What does this fold into?
Amino acid sequence: MTAEHCTLAEYLADWSGSDTQKSAVAETIIAMAAASVELAAIIAEGPFARGLADTVGDAGGGDIKKFLDVEAHKLFKDALAGAPVAALGSEEADDAEILNEGAPMVVAIDPLDGSSNIETNVSIGTIFSVLPVGGGMTPSQALLQAGKEQMASGFVVYGPQTTLIMTVRDGTHIFTMSPADRVYRLTHRNVTIATDKAEYGVNASNQRHWPVAIKTYIGDLNAGTDGPREKNFNMRWVGSMVAEAYRIFIRGGIFLYPGDNRKGYEQGRLRLVYEAIPVALLVAEAGGAATDGVRPILEIKPDNLHQRIPLVFGPGQEVDRIAQYIERGGGDENSPLFSERGLLRE
Ligand code: AHM
Ligand code: MG
It folds into this structure.
């Protein structure tokens, strides 16, 4: 093992030095990393553990709550109760939960991302965002700050390997859990999002519900060498955002979960506070961009903990291109679909 493979604890100790606030962030991340190691072990038990994918309730907004969602929430809540965290905002709890009154930060979390994949042996994850509690804010208000205020964010992927991708605003780094001792070690320092990968991730089954701009953009990608992009694009959709995001950090590509005209999906499916905001910081630190189609995610101030947001992320140039489609209200001017629609609108 080379010096490059320092442990997560070593990395964070080196980064925080004797700075009190940074040390508190480090302690919080280490607490969550420990919980994720426990969760990884439960997930790996799969069918030997009690019904991980059993439905145990309704998470609201049409989402189903599974046994593993609830277990994951408990694990992270217990871990964070022992960290300098004032409150936890979780996908699995209606309201912010107070942990340590007076502590300097709050954490927003999706304890188990990709719940629909639990029983399929496909990658699932945990997403987190760490925010400061500033002057005069209540912990609940602190959870609703714009993403640009984050001190740290990250996500864990429970897949063929268990990986933690994280930023403390000093670049985006990947730590992989070594199976022998269940310790996270640095495996990719300063990840940057490749700009030349012709690959996209979107739930294509929603196509008929999308706005014209998104239909046209994806139509132009699918037109391949015959279309305005003059190259063939590949499509990948795992159904766990953590897995799509990890793929994009490793080899590039673009992710979209747009709003669509299904009831309840006007603002897409993903949640602003504990899905889009943490991923947006990781993406920004890796040189990419994340928007709701037009507005940078990190600039959006949430109205409530469980608010949904359309989400696009990947290399800045491709994210900008999608904004241009949306701003034109249709497509790229070179797009055959755009001209067709232009004619239809006359
Ligand atoms: P979850 O947090 O309840 O698992 O829901 C979020 C997931 C994302 O991981 C993924 O991108 C999306 O929902 C998949 O949606 P769809 O069912 O439309 O494929
Ligand atoms: Mg999720």
